[in-house]
Structures are given as C-alpha cells and as structure tokens.
Design goal:
473 residues, Fumarate Reductase Iron-sulfur Protein, Chain B, domain 2, FAD/NAD(P)-binding domain, five-stranded parallel beta sheet, binds flavin-adenine dinucleotide
C-alpha cells in the first residue's frame, strides 16, 4: 500500500454500548475491533523511521513493529512483540490515556487523527484470549532468594512478574482482601472488566508468586521484620491512596461527605452504599469522572461535576469527558465549593463561588480566581471531593525511609533504590505521585532490574539502558 493510500483511510472507531444500555450496570462500554477493522486501522500506520509513538509510550513498546505484524495477520507474534516490553498489555490497552501518551505523539495526529494504537493492542490481547493461546512465559528454576513486595497494584505486579520469572520467590503483601491496587478499587469495571485483572493474578500464581491478603506492612508486620524473615530485598508499591481534602468548613465529620478514592474503594469492593440522589463531585480529572459515573450506575439520579476551570482545562481524557456527558452528568464549570452546610451533622447543601480565569499558573493553565460576591448554594445529598491523592505513610513505620517534601518516597531516579535503606526499592504512585498504570509498570520494570542487580551483587548502572530517563513523560 502506498503512503497516500494509507493517509486516505479514516481512523476507525470502536462500537460502544449506548448510554441507555450502560448507565444502570457495570458492563464494559467500549467493544474491541473486529479483525477487518483492526487490519484497516493498522494500515493507517506510516511505519515512521523515527517513531515518536515509542517515545510517547512510558513502557517504550515497539509500536510500529507490532502493528506491522498485525497487518500481516501474525497476531500471536504481534502479541509477543508487545510482551517484550509490557507486562500487562490487556490492562494498558484499555486504560492508558493514549491521547497523552503513544497516540499523542503519533505523527498522523499532527494533521488529522492519530492511529488508534490502544485499540490495536487491545485487539491482540483479545485475539489471544478468544483463540485460547498461551499468554504465559515459562517459569524459571528457583534461585533460593526471597523478595517481598508491598502492594498488589501494577507496580508491585510488574516487579513480581519479572523477578518470579528470574527464579526469585516473590511474596506480595496486600492490605486489602482484593488483588490489583487501583485497577480493582479505583478503575471501574465498565472500563476494565475484572476477568482481565484475574488473568494477571493467574499469571503471577502460575510462577509461584504468593499473595498474602489483609496484611498491612507497617501495622501487621514491619519492614524490619520482613528483612529478619529472610527477604533479601523489598519493593514498596503502596500507591497514593490518601485523598487530598478541599480544606473547607464542614468537610470533616459531616455525614454525606465522602472522598473520591474512598468512595470508589467501598463501592468497587462490593459495599451496598446509598448516597442519595443529588450528588456533587468536585474535580476535573479522571478520578472525578469515575466517581460521577459510578454514582450514576449505583442509582443516584442527579449527578454533576463541579470544576473550577472550564471544560477545555479539564485534565481528564477527552473520551472520558465525552462518555460522562453522554450518560447525563452535567459539568458545572467555573465554580468551587467554599463551605459545606449541615443540619444535625448531615449534609444539606454546599455553598459555592463562581470563578473566572486569570493569568496562567505553573501548570500553564489559567489560574481560577474567585469572583467576589458571587456565592451560591447547591442542595445536595452527597459531596465527593475527587481532587487528588497522596501517599499514606504506614508501610515505613519503624524504618527511617527518606521522603520528598510532597510525601513521595525518595529514591535514586535511575535505580529506584531508596536513598536511605539499600535493600528497599520503591516505584509507581508512591514515587511519582498519582500517575498512570503505564508509568507504574515502567517503574516496576526499573525496580525489578535494580533489585536483581542488588541481590546478585552486580553494579547498579553498568551496561544498563537508560534511554527512557531521557524522555519527558
Ligand atoms: P496502586 O495501584 O495504588 O496499588 C497499591 C496497593 O498497595 C494497593 O492495593 C494498596 O491496598 C496496597 N497497600 C498500600 N499500603 C499498603 C501497606 N502498608 N501494606 C500492604 N499493602 C498496602 N491510570 C491509567 O493509566 N488509566 C486510567 O484510566 C486510570 N484511572 C484511574 C482511576 C481512578 C479512580 C484512580 C484512583 C486511578 C486511576 N489511574 C489510572 C491511576 C492508576 O490506577 C495508578 O497510577 C496505578 O494503579 C498506580 O499503581 P501502583 O502499583 O503504584 O499503586
């Protein structure tokens, strides 16, 4: 096919459940491509000599190579090409914010629409499942060394995956009774079906990874105790699970005030939580959108977002915003809460203020400024601030572990080794702050390599590929 012909093919869009079909359940919203659509979309790739998409992918997947194989219908080979770099393509293909990562760098996006890289990756993983193909690598001979991993999110999963395939006996300690970190208790089923997470769990068990649920490191057992029990090295992948607060009157102790990730964890863990009909979600990121869409699916009739800037400045992905609005959630822009009103300890209403956009701030976005005298009241049954999260420091109790002033663990950025305790490594949201699955996977890969070098007495940096550190993502 000539480049001109490739350029003439429009981007293919997946089918989706209609809003009416999906707002009362947790069924997956987006369907995968069928074979012919996948081939057509793959034919849009220009196979650039200097592929910007690879640099845009936090895991550095060889995107042109897997797309070239896909369009030759070598689906199994294409899948394994992705697996050379990614531990969990079934997850990443569904939840990565592709528009800001690989697809955001695709040259086709400069003068039109980028190649649907995420959907193509998803096609491969779905094809492997549908055709009953083996998706597991061979396990290695045990090497006699034990590794402890704290947290079963994508960072911890990646460390366990890589080190167990190198012969280390890995044990994951997880506070919750559920596996998967934010994949299970943050990202709702309609974006990431639970059988996908189940397959990741199975892949780890397949190579002998042990998972100890309901054990909070720092409370039920300390890091020092793990060391005494013979774990040669420990990985901290505890994420960022503490909700940031609005810091307004009435936020603490009022019934009807819940915080974003706490609400999601409770609902997605199976709690039958009724928060009433009128729900105000505060924030403009993906977490706020997930909260609003989950509240809708849990039966709240009137759900809306309160956001202090305009829709253009919302950090959430365009697709998520589109789905949110399709489902009937309103976005109340240029407004912020200033006080929570209550009667007998129960929320009745929220006092808000109108905002206007001033000069750009450090993030480059125009700073919202409150308009004097513009206060107004919104009656509500529940308010759910979903403005960000920070690291909860319970794991490191009893160990002097260096942290940054904003609360993340301080590590050597090239190796992810703690700067204060040499047998401890950390990565994912507890080092980066709330970020993405792909970045957690990438840091899991870096940490696993470092832990291996540390345990085998190999130089931490010699001969190591550090190209990813040069990429600004
Ligand atoms: P986590 O996934 O947070 O896992 C940490 C685990 O450690 C948890 O299971 C926790 O219970 C456990 N833990 C904590 N402390 C202890 C302790 N002391 N002892 C034992 N266990 C402990 N990213 C995307 O790329 N795409 C998305 O669409 C997306 N959507 C998101 C939606 C929501 C609502 C949220 C909250 C996040 C979303 N993210 C998304 C971000 C993504 O989920 C995280 O960046 C990623 O999960 C971080 O991985 P992690 O392994 O560092 O930590």
């Amino acid at each position: 096919m000539k480049p001109k012909e490739r350029l003439a093919i429009p981007r293919q869009h997946p089918k989706e459940l209609s809003p009416e079909e999906r707002i009362h359940n947790f069924k997956e919203v987006t369907f995968g491509f069928d074979e012919e659509t996948a081939i057509l979309e793959a034919n849009r790739c220009l196979q650039c000599k200097k592929p910007a998409c690879i640099a845009g992918c936090p895991i550095h997947n060889d995107i042109p190579a897997f797309i070239a194989l896909l369009r030759e219908r070598k689906f199994e080979e294409a899948y394994w090409k992705v697996r050379e770099t990614s531990t969990m393509p079934s997850v990443c293909s569904r939840v990565c914010p592709h528009e800001f990562q690989c697809e955001g760098s695709c040259v086709r996006g400069k003068k039109g629409e980028s190649v649907a890289i995420g959907m193509l990756e998803r096609y491969l993983t779905d094809w492997m499942v549908a055709n009953g193909k083996n998706m597991y690598r061979e396990c290695a001979q045990a090497n006699g060394k034990k590794v402890a991993i704290v947290g079963s999110g994508p960072a911890g999963m990646t460390v366990a995956h890589i080190l167990s395939h190198q012969g280390y006996q890995c044990t994951i300690f997880e506070s919750l009774p559920i596996f998967g970190g934010m994949l299970s208790v943050g990202i709702p089923h309609y974006r990431l079906p639970r059988d996908i997470i189940g397959a990741e769990l199975y892949a780890l068990k397949h190579c002998g990874v042990e998972i100890v649920y309901g054990t909070t490191i720092g409370e039920d057992k300390t890091l020092a105790q793990l060391r005494q029990e013979g774990f040669a090295s420990v990985f901290l992948g505890v994420g960022a699970h503490e909700s940031r607060k609005l810091g307004i009157e009435g936020e603490d102790g009022t019934e009807g005030v819940l915080h974003g990730v706490d609400y999601l964890r409770r609902v997605l863990s199976g709690e039958d939580l009724d928060i009433g009909n009128r729900v105000v979600v505060v924030g403009g990121g993906n977490v706020a959108i997930d909260v609003a869409r989950v509240a809708l699916r849990r039966g709240s009739k009137d759900v809306f977002l309160l956001y202090r800037r305009t829709k253009e400045e919302m950090p959430a992905s365009k697709m998520e915003i589109h789905h949110l609005e399709e489902e009937g959630v309103r976005i109340e822009m240029l407004a912020a809460p200033v006080r929570i009103l209550q009667e007998n300890g129960k929320l009745t209403a929220i006092e808000c203020v109108r905002m206007e956009l001033g000069e750009p701030d450090a993030s480059g976005r125009r700073r919202p400024v409150a308009k004097e005298g513009s206060n107004f009241i919104i009656e509500a049954d529940a308010i759910i601030p979903a403005i960000s999260q920070k690291v909860r420091h319970n794991a490191d109790k009893g160990v002097e572990l260096a942290s940054e002033s904003w609360g993340t663990y301080r590590v050597d950025p090239k190796t992810l080794q703690s700067t204060s305790v040499e047998w401890i490594f950390a990565g994912g949201d507890d080092v980066l702050g709330p970020q993405t699955v792909a970045k957690a996977v990438y840091q899991g890969k870096v940490a696993a390599e470092s832990m291996h070098r540390y345990m085998q007495g190999i130089d931490m940096l010699e001969g190591r590929d550090l190209t990813c550190y040069m990429v600004d993502w």
